[in-house]
Amino acid sequence: MNKKRWIALAVAVALFFASLGFQFLTSLVTTNYEAMFSLEDLDDDFNEKVIEEGSGMSKIAVLRLNGVIQNTTANTLINTSSYNHKRFLDMLDKAAEDPRVNGIILRVNTPGGGVVESAEIHAKIVEIQEEYEKPIYVSMGNTAASGGYYISAPADKIVAHNATLTGSIGVIMESFNFAEFADEHGIDFNTIKSGEYKDIMSMSREMTEDEREILQTMIDDMYDDFVQVIVEGRDMSEDRVRELGDGRVYTGAQAQEADLVDRLGSLNDTITMMKEDQELGNAQVVEYEQGLTINQFLGGTMRSMFGAESDLIGIKDLLRENNAPRAMYLYSK
């Protein structure tokens, strides 16, 4: 390579790093450092945003649950905006332990998710109601189905929009079967296993009747738990719950008619209901929102610098995290 080409290459590299540096500095300049480094919220990773003024000595806390309920370990430096299971549980803990919070509203917008994660949220809600004696209302968004309904069932009041999609009461487990495709294309699978059922739900062969029976028994047990959660939370008979819980989704209006939700309305309507029901007319209404942590700041900077490539990294991590079949309280189209 001649001297001119070396110079051109050096200039190109310098411009590239200068561009990255400029974008990084831009992020530094535009960052809200007061929120990022607030001593009050440093340990919580979230802030309180006042959405209705009040006395401040009495508060209603609004917590938003958006996205699929699953405790993934995707690349946290890139993927900083998806549902964070631990942070949501921490928010519930903070609302429970704050003596100024006299009521909690969960804004639920989710198709559901993992069986374990949904059960953990449900258990936390019941704990708050029983140990802290704080009312919890649910305001349903566009979708509050399957696991979204599972966590809503114990609420003191469930409010849905007329067009909310809810219900989808049930459990699902899925996997792919590439056996026929592999056979047509001469692909062989070599599996070494320690027991007959070690490769249950393998993508490389047909499922046996014994395996199907094993998995169906598991799903039935999880479904029984789902039914019991609704029986206890909604004070309905088991027969009625099983009649409604055939996996179908309901609109908010249909769910109200079936007694799966109490009222129709918006988040604002839910706030008004709680104030009236719980005599909290002068309460300040705050929304717990995710604070800007170092990881989020760096993640946002990297997304701005690398654009679509960072999205691909997040997708790759999510696929790798979910490549094994798992039981889900999930509404999927």
From TrEMBL:
GO terms for biological process: proteolysis. Its EC number is 3.4.21.-. Keywords: Hydrolase, Protease, Serine protease. SUPFAM superfamilies: ClpP/crotonase. InterPro entries: ClpP/crotonase-like_dom_sf, Pept_S49_SppA, Peptidase_S49, S49_SppA_C. It is an enzyme of class 3 (hydrolase). One of its GO terms (molecular function) is peptidase activity. Residues 131-280 form the Peptidase S49 domain. NCBIfam families: SppA_dom. Belongs to the peptidase S49 family. This is Protease-4. It comes from Aquibacillus albus.
